[in-house]
Specification:
The complex is a heterodimer. By secondary structure, chain A is mostly helical. Chain A has one domain (21-93). Helices cover 53% and strands 0% of the residues of chain A. Chain A has 6 helices and no strands. In chain A, helix 3 crosses helix 6. Chain A is globular. Chain A starts with a helix and ends in a 9-residue tail after the last helix. Chain B is an alpha/beta fold. Chain B folds into 3 domains: 4-108 and 257-322, FAD/NAD(P)-binding domain (3-Layer(bba) Sandwich); 112-254, FAD/NAD(P)-binding domain (3-Layer(bba) Sandwich); 332-420, no CATH class. Chain B is built from 7 helices and 24 strands. Chain B has helices at 13-25, 134-146, 166-180, 202-214, 258-262, 304-322, 377-394, and strands spanning 4-9, 31-37, 41-43, 62-64, 74-77, 80-84, 89-92, 97-99, 102-105, 109-111, 128-129, 150-156, 187-192, 217-220, 225-229, 234-237, 242-244, 247-251, 254-256, 289-291, 335-342, 345-351, 360-364, 368-372. In chain B, the strands form 8 sheets. Chain B has a 5-stranded parallel β-sheet, with helices on one face. Chain B has a 5-stranded parallel β-sheet with strand order 11-18-12-13-14. In chain B, helix 1 runs parallel beside helix 6 (304-322). Classes of the chains: A mainly alpha, B alpha/beta. Chains A and B meet through helix 4 and helix 5 of A and loops of B.
């Protein structure tokens, strides 16, 4: 029942990204990670918290920036979040889908 | 009154244009303008796209930089060692120190193939080419003259690149080139990109994906290049996907000039772009340093049209800064790109920070004459005419007959049914 309440209150966009990143919680992260078949290890959490911190600082994120974070290199980032690591990690971290500037 | 110094670093599109605009706006008895560049030749970079296909010759795209700078400005040809913001000084390799009251950084971006293992190795300029440099594009022209066919792979090593439509234009022109040579059946074309589709903006991606399919070009999305296996001639992504090639046309990682790293002024991604206020174009960390064109980290295209639209805003803001007023002029991210699609036709897109490219007419509603997100002959002539506009109006800082801020007039805003 509790999850039902959570889902009702939390707003996501069409692609499942949180509309308001302040609504994020670790429970939310676990739920999205499970949907994507990603078991969250301490390393995952380090990356997720780093992404949230950078987002709050107004930094436009890129895979390369995560690779320069000192937490993981790009190869490890792909290992943690297979497929499109920044897109998936952003969704779990409750921050907007990364925009590629053109 | 003491003469003050305005120094511009880089005499490319943005720097040259700023020198001309500021020369017209500032009183010569109060301000001395100095511009520094390592190279004395100005290249018309949009023309690099046409050289591999023999449409432009090398001499069509080069002129002396000095011809486009105001006579009263001092033009120094030297390497820049570094900027020392705390001392308001630029140090040149030749040993000269340039003090400044206002600094405009317009040092652009360059492809750095060395960032990727195996790219600039034994296959470089044999089976691997870039076309964003004069040397790369002229060597590729020679290669294509006699190439017998096989797998042609166009790869973007990074999402953030100069002129993001150019690799697509190259792909379309290659399709036309081999078709006209009667050997298209001997060439398989692959467009391999780290993006999730052909382009970054949804409507443009739908439009371009359709075109790519019609032209029998294979798109490999979500491919983030880790290295090139030179012995097997294969691209390898970070998640171990592979794409084989016979001829690789690479868009290497783009970086800002190394002098930005030496000056410790770059963004934290290590790409040497300067953190810049995306509206006022002032450097975030310094009050008397402004940044324009490809050298900034603002989320707009790295393209000449962007530099042009930024130029108007920046001139106004520099004048406000000198007058001690707040910086009121705001850049909206306006960008405008022709997309050459081959066979004498082209498309056109117009957008800004908030509005993606939409279909419609440009620059005037209904009459156009150019069509947005459409493939027309008029757009192609617009693109060819632009070379004249570039040398005669854009570089010299003249006002172009198009709005500086993006306009919604002429754009169709209804949701297209084809958009998924």
């Amino acid at each position: 029942m509790e999850t039902a309440t959570i889902e009702k209150q939390i707003e996501v966009n069409q692609e499942g990204y949180l509309k308001d990143s302040s609504q994020w919680s670790e429970d939310w992260a676990k739920k999205i990670a499970t949907e994507n078949n990603i078991p969250l290890t301490p390393k995952h959490w380090d990356v997720l918290h780093w992404l949230r911190k950078k987002h709050e600082e107004g930094v436009a994120l890129s895979i390369r920036k995560v690779g320069n974070s000192g937490l993981v290199d790009i190869k490890q980032f792909y290992g943690l979040f297979p497929g499109g690591p920044l897109k998936i990690a952003s969704k779990i971290a409750g921050i907007p889908k990364p925009v590629s500037c053109i | 009154m003491k003469v003050r110094n305005l120094v511009i670093l880089g005499a490319g599109t943005a720097g040259t244009m700023m020198a001309n605009k500021l020369h017209k706006s500032l009183n010569a008895s109060e301000w001395k303008i100095t511009i520094v560049d390592r190279d004395e030749t100005h290249y018309y970079q949009p023309g690099f796209l046409f050289i591999p296909f023999g449409i432009y010759k090398p001499e069509d795209v080069m002129k002396p930089k000095a011809d486009f700078l105001p006579n009263e400005a001092t033009f120094i040809i030297d390497e820049i060692e570094k900027i020392q913001p705390e001392k308001n000084e630029v140090i040149l390799k030749g040993g000269q120190n340039l003090p400044y009251d206002i600094l405009v950084v317009a040092t652009g971006t360059i492809p750095v193939p060395k960032e990727t293992e195996g790219l600039k190795g034994k296959l470089w300029y044999k089976d691997i080419f870039d076309f964003y440099t004069f040397e790369g594009t002229t060597r590729l022209a020679k290669k294509l003259e006699n190439w017998k066919g096989g797998k042609l792979v166009i790869n973007l090593a990074e999402t953030l690149i100069k002129c993001p439509v150019a690799p697509l234009e190259f792909t379309f022109l290659a399709d036309a080139f081999f078709t006209e040579k009667g050997m298209r059946d001997k060439v398989e074309i692959f467009y391999v990109t780290p993006l999730s589709g052909a382009f970054t903006k949804p409507k443009t991606t739908v439009f371009l994906s359709k075109l790519l399919k019609e032209k029998n070009i294979n798109v490999v999305p979500d491919f983030y290049l880790q290295r090139v296996d030179e012995d097997r001639k294969v691209l390898v992504s970070f998640d171990e996907k592979e794409v084989p090639f016979d001829l690789l046309v690479s868009v290497p990682v783009n970086k800002g000039d190394e002098l930005i790293a030496r000056s410790n002024m770059g963004d934290e991604d290590g790409l040497n772009f300067i953190p810049t206020n995306k509206e006022t174009l002032k450097a975030l960390k310094q009050d008397n340093i402004f940044v324009i064109g490809d050298a900034t980290n603002v989320p707009a295209s790295k393209a000449g049209s962007v530099a042009h639209f930024e130029g108007e805003v920046l001139t106004e803001n520099i004048l406000s800064y000198i007058a001690g007023e707040s910086l009121e002029a705001k850049f909206d991210g306006h960008s405008n790109c022709f997309i050459e699609t081959g066979f004498g036709k082209a498309s056109l897109i117009d957008f800004n920070y908030d509005t993606e490219p939409l279909p419609g007419k440009y620059p005037w509603p209904v009459v156009g004459p150019m069509g947005l997100l459409k493939v027309t002959r008029a757009n192609h002539f617009g693109k060819l005419m632009f070379k004249w506009v570039y040398w005669h109006m854009l570089l010299t800082g003249k006002k172009l007959p198009v709005s500086n801020h993006m306009s919604m007039a002429g754009k169709e805003t209804e949701t297209e049914t084809e958009l998924v």
